[in-house]
Amino acid sequence: MNRRIILTTAASLVIGVVAGTGIMMNDQAYQSVKQAVGGGTSNAVGQMDISSMDIETALQAVQEQRASLLEQQLNQQISDVQKRNEQIANMNNLLSDINNAKSQEAANGQYVLPDNVTSKLSEQGAGDASKTSYTKDELDKMSQDLKGKIDSLSNSQQMDMLRLQSLSNKRNEAFDTMTNFVKKMQDSRNSIIGNMR
Predict the structure, then answer these.
(1) pLDDT digits (tens, 9 = 90+) for 95-106
(2) Which stretches of the chain are assigned E, i.e. beta strand?
(3) Are 174 and 71 in contact (CB under 8 A)?
(4) What is the CB neighbour count within 10 angstroms for residue 132?
């Protein structure tokens, strides 16, 4: 009875090793991976040449490249969100400067804005850089223009934040997939080595 179990185990081991080797050396499986990642005209994925790689290494390389590209997209999206936050902060500062000017005493119905504020307003398309004083109606119009631009940027920022969350989830998923793939490869190697003992 003991001999029968040993022979069955040895036969299973031999069949497993032969089947695993056959799968790893199967040209059709390699061609499928090649078509999935490169289209069949080249054995390169991005800057990598997968023609000399086995299937596991090629799949791992492709997954690493995917994770790296998602990381780059995520960093670019974070940079875009930070730039939009700076734009909103600058416009809020300009709005505050206009409100401060309106709260000051007007000379002959004209309100004076500091030079740096008028130049910043003209950069935003809300004021005239050649003017030094404005009427209350002009200041109100500039305030409304700035509020409209701030609202527009805030709406865009919400979309950016959704995209940022989506990219973050995809990046985490790519790293999880890569980690699971490496763990499965290691487990299968350990199993084969364990069966050979």
Answers:
(1) 888 888 777 776
(2) 44-45, 48-49, 111-112, 133-134
(3) no
(4) 12
